[in-house]
Amino acid sequence: MTKERIDEIIGAAPLSTVDVEAIVARERKTAWLRPNPWVVTAAGVAAVAVGAAFVLAPGTPGAVSPAAATSSAPELPEPCEIPTLMGPVPTEKPADATTRLTGVLTTAVTTRLATGTTLTPSAANYPTGDPGRGPLQIVHSARPVTNNGGTCSGGEDEFVAGAATVRSGKKGSVQATLGRLGGRLNMPADCVDQTPEGMEQVCHRSFGPKGEVIVATILTGKGGGPSIHRVEVSRADKIGVILEASNAVDAKHDRKPDSPVPPLTLEQLAEIALDPGMTLYP
User: Fold this and answer.
1) β-pair type (146-148, 54-56)
2) Global pTM?
3) How far is CA 178 from CA 48, 102, 167, 184, 200, in A?
4) Which end of the chain has less Cβ packing within 10 Å, N or C?
5) Which of these, 174, 190, 149, 151, lies nearest to 229 by C-alpha position?
6) Would residue 266 be called left, alpha or beta, if left means φ above 0 and alpha means ψ between -120 and 50 degrees?
7) Closest CA to 105 of 274, 282, 281
8) Tens digits of per-residue pLDDT, 57-88?
């Protein structure tokens, strides 16, 4: 989640209205949208081409002859084109991968949660239109890139999951995204320079035992606001893993954090991301 993306989600609203759960949910589910800068240009080129298709031949009123051959217009780039997925194409079927990854993620998370913490399905990840999903149940999200009237969407090929956490009545959340590097899953190479407005940021980059790049960030709302622990790992096997943990806000208490800290630390999130099972087998 880049600085620009956080700013876009939160905007200039006062801190009391910042809803971390909504931020995380929209970030996971938002379509990849980009205006098509070639719509007007392409229409203009087409109009010129039509206007030049016919000319009146000298001395023959009303007669039409083909225009003189001209060099063809330069080919316009495809505005919805995204980088080719760099990671190897897995031979593991998506259905098999979702089952295996659900077990790996659930075990890795539950063994690190504080004693007495329970997991429940996250409405943000599994809405009413997709009932029956358990907590941290992996779902394969894949859509081809489409151009709908100059707006691009789709392009993801990811495995995602989420859960709400409850401990002593205090709520939090855990989110996970895993996929091949490239395409829409572009991982940061280092920490961002600027902190989103209304938040404080602590970030550091490190490397895993097999050369993995680990960018770990804590975003905290100023004035005692909620926090997001986020770890983004670029694995050596060309797989990207994003893990987040946040403490939910409480609408009954001026939208202050319901729990004092997120349910998992940065160190715990990094351990989960580096689990050998958190990958797609090529």
Assistant:
1) unpaired
2) 0.70
3) 47, 11, 26, 12, 26
4) C
5) 174
6) alpha
7) 274
8) 444 444 444 455 555 555 545 667 766 655 66
